Amino acid sequence: MTASTSSYALEVVNLKKAFGGLTVTQNVSLSIRPGERRLIIGPNGAGKTTLFNQISGDLRPNSGAIRLFGSDITHLPPHRRAHFGLSRTYQIITLFSGDTLEHNITLGLLGLRPARWQMWRPLSFYRDIAAEARRTLDAVGLLQLAAHPISDIAYGERRRVELAMALVQKPRVLLLDEPLAGLSNTERSTVKSLISSIPRETTVIMIEHDMDTALDLAETVTLLNYGRVIVDGERDAVIADERTREVYLGT
Amino acid sequence: MKWIGAALLAGSLLLPPIFAGDFYVNLASQILIAAIFALSLNLLVGFGGMTSLGHASYLGVAAYISALLTSRYGFGHGAAAFLSIAGTTAMAAFFGVIALRASGLGFLMITLALSQVLWGLAYRISNVTNGDNGIAGLTRPAPFGISLDSPISFYWFALIVATFALAMMTIFVSSAFGSSLKGVRDQPRRMAALGFNPWLIRWFTFVYAGFWGGVSGLLYVYYHKYIHPTSLSTTSSAEALLGVIAGGSGTLGGPAVGAALVLLLKNYVSAYLERWNMLLGLVFLFIVLVMPTGIVPGVSSLTARLRGEPR
What we know:
- The structure holds 2 protein chains of 2 kinds.
- By secondary structure, chain A is an alpha/beta fold.
- Helices cover about 30% and strands about 25% of the residues of chain A.
- Chain A starts with 9 loop residues before the first strand and ends with a helix.
- The model of chain A has no long low-confidence stretch (mean pLDDT about 90).
- Chain B has helices spanning about 1-15, 15-20, 20-50, 55-70, 75-100, 105-125, 125-130, 150-175, 175-185, 190-195, 200-225, 235-245, 255-270, 275-290, 295-305.
- In chain B, α3 packs antiparallel against α11 and α13 packs antiparallel against α14.
- The interface of A and B includes residues 103, 115, 118 and 125 of A.
């Protein structure tokens, strides 16, 4: 691991990944500045989630490098990346459905603390963890449901828990995989305002399938198609680009 | 309601030595030993989501180490007990590294294979283990000068150890680490993304379960004063697993109830029916069909329903 000063929060360099004969990531390079709001768009099967899975460590790339604030994390297991300040959410909601909302958020906090190895003290011993979990639930407007199990709450609320679980970790880089998927209009605007209130210390990279829904949250946009970066740059320039129209409207 | 349950439990644990004959006191001791063993397996199966078919390895190896050290090499019971538990725990640490390369069915197959190797060795290296004859003529320890040779004194000894074991395992699963373990059982990928090391969490649990498996093995060999390769067999692993699932995996009381059920069936029914395994199978089938989550969760939800509570 080479730690050096870098002007980028996240750098992806020539990343390649293939499943058998199917290339899902082809020479993808991204450079994302600290505090940036980056939107990654592309049609179904463009390789967006596969790219996220490589950044978070769930998948190993065939070649290329991933750097977080200048540190090479390409070969680190997912849990080590979390301690480097990387958090993510999932397109398919991945929560602890039998546990309460508060416990779900608590796990987000516990993951980064030495207390996760504590074998004789109950979790309830750590009052500060519980207090912070409840603060975060309050921030996403779910405090009144804190004691309910996830299986009791609605889909839109689960989306917010999914987000809160990552936010509570105060990540330096946050990967959001379709945080607006399947939401109604009102729920969507709730989650959008939550995302826009994320502090600037956190760099946000967000996948959206539908480019209109999340465009106003983004400063820069990367368009992926067939595992390749098609267009990359400032939001308005990407929207205006002819290749973007081609991908989205067809020719 | 809780108090009635606790009183009944305390009664059933404290009364046998006073009222019952030797046969029942001995049966109660065996149930306590089987309960410790099942509880330790439950750490893996119920709380860790790691279904093992080789847990008898820890019971058997601890028993063999103690038997060999005391009968052959002239060790005292104290040193033999220490070395037996330490050796078994070290073995769990090593086996854990091998078995945890896989999860699910792969994990189950590796634990099965490792336990088969030990079982085979116990038969084969007969110049050490006495092979199929087993090691007989063992003695019970006398902690603080108190002889454990009578059924009643042994029962009290087993009860103290079992209570301590239950307390320690309860603390373990209720701890912050216990939350990490249950999280890794339910959503390993998410847990890794949150900063937990799933492998290491599983490995620690595997070692801890091996430790308590070893403790039950030590009690087992003290009780029987005899050890035979069958205690290392897949059958004894499977019986314990059956008890855990029948009683309710992932609960603290369930495995103890399940272990008691298996042992009672074995001891009572085998007197009347040669194929007691068949009846065990039927009982197990009945439990799985009627109370899929096991006896303890099944009964508690039933009583809740009878008293008109929601859920």
